[in-house]
């Protein structure tokens, strides 16, 4: 099941699996390598945000890649492929219906909460190195809340997060089963990606942001509007903006994930009766 891996190691406690895999790649490891930890003391998410979880409560993993001929403009597809493989594995490991887990653009895995709020299940972090217009190496980290009961969630994050245990109705979920399932699904997806075939349909279908009003923070400028779709070529989000730029122009705005500080969904389904503000 893991024959396609050049290296796979599990750790009880590390600073960060991202750093371990980067060291492997810098030391000359080629192909695909994966580090998994029970606990991280310096885990981080996008924009250097802290990512923490109790020991054994989450699947904390980083995968390293040295793709043979990947254009830099498609580097984002590695993270998307890792995420899609994990979604399939997580739904299977937790006994969930298909289409229970979604992508909140650009890099969160989410599930629908009881009040319509999107609850964060996992974060994905991609770091790429390149030579000219080609990817030389990439490290994709993912932290997914697995056997973590809601009663133990941090108080400040509890309204906005969930775990496989919670969305499966309180059933415990085995991290080893999840890891094996993820690797088994990652291999064929990577083979297809290396051959130039990206699962654009699957990635597009899983977008929970599409069709909802959003606020996108571009670092000094906030764009509000309706998210109308994603571009499988560039990975960008298309927003029918209510105000574009300081001049207040309206129209279609195509937003690259590299520009984004935060993307927030600001509407809930009409059926919600909760007064809690959306995530």
Can you describe this structure?
- This protein has 279 residues and is an alpha+beta fold.
- It has two domains: 5-205, BirA Bifunctional Protein, domain 2, CATH 3.30.930; 213-265, SH3 type barrels (Roll), CATH 2.30.30.
- It is 21% helix and 34% strand.
- It is built from five helices and twelve strands.
- The protein has helices spanning 17-26, 76-93, 164-167, 175-194, 200-205; strands at residues 5-14, 32-40, 58-65, 101-104, 108-112, 118-131, 134-145, 213-217, 222-230, 237-244, 249-255, 262-265.
- The strands form two sheets. The chain has a seven-stranded mixed sheet, sandwiched between helices.
- A hairpin with a 5-residue loop joins β5 (108-112) and β6.
- α2 packs antiparallel against α4 (175-194).
- The longest helix has 20 residues, at 175-194.
- The radius of gyration is 18 Å and the shape is globular.
What attributes characterize this protein structure?
34% strand; alpha+beta; 21% helix; BirA Bifunctional Protein, domain 2; disordered C terminus; 5 helices; 2 domains; SH3 type barrels; 279 residues; single chain
Gist of the model:
The protein is an alpha+beta fold and 279 residues long. It is built from 5 helices and 12 strands.
* CATH fold-level topology of the largest domain: BirA Bifunctional Protein, domain 2
Number-wise, the strands total 12
Structure class: alpha+beta
Strand content: 25-35%
CATH superfamily of the largest domain: Bira Bifunctional Protein, Domain 2
- The average pLDDT value, as a whole number, equals 89
The gyration radius over C-alpha positions equals: 18 Å
CATH class of the largest domain: Alpha Beta
Major sheet summary line: 7 strands, mixed
- In the CATH hierarchy, what is the architecture of the largest domain at level 2? 2-Layer Sandwich
Unreliable spans are: 270-279
Shape: globular
What is the helical fraction, as a range of percent? 10-25%
Distance from first to last alpha carbon: 37 Å
How many structural units, i.e. domains?
Answer: 2
- Strand adjacency order, main sheet: 1-2-3-7-6-5-4
């Amino acid at each position: 099941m893991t024959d396609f891996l050049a290296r796979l190691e599990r750790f009880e406690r590390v600073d960060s699996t991202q750093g371990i895999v980067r060291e492997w790649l810098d030391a000359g490891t080629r192909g695909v390598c994966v580090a998994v930890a029970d606990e991280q003391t310096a885990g981080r998410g996008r924009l250097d945000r802290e990512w923490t979880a109790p020991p054994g409560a989450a699947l904390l993993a980083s995968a390293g890649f040295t793709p043979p001929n990947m254009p830099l403009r498609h580097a984002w597809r590695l993270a998307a492929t890792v995420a899609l493989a994990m979604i399939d594995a997580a739904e299977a490991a937790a006994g969930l219906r298909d289409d229970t887990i979604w992508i909140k653009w650009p890099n969160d895995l989410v599930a629908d909460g009881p009040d319509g709020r999107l609850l964060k299940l996992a974060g994905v972090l991609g770091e790429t190195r390149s030579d000219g217009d080609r990817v030389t190496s990439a490290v994709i980290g993912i932290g997914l809340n697995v056997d973590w009961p809601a009663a133990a969630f941090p108080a400040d994050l509890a309204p906005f997060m969930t775990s496989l245990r919670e969305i499966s109705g309180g059933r415990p979920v085995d991290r080893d089963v999840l890891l094996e399932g993820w690797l088994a699904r990652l291999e064929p997806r990577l083979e297809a990606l290396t051959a130039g075939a990206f699962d654009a349909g699957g990635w597009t279908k899983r977008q929970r942001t599409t069709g909802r009003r959003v606020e996108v923070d571009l670092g000094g400028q906030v764009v509000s509007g309706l998210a109308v779709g994603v571009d499988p070529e560039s990975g960008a989000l298309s927003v029918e903006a209510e105000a574009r730029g300081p001049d207040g122009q309206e129209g279609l705005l195509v937003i690259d994930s590299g520009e984004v500080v935060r993307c927030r969904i600001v509407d809930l389904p009409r059926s919600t009766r909760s007064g809690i503000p959306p995530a």
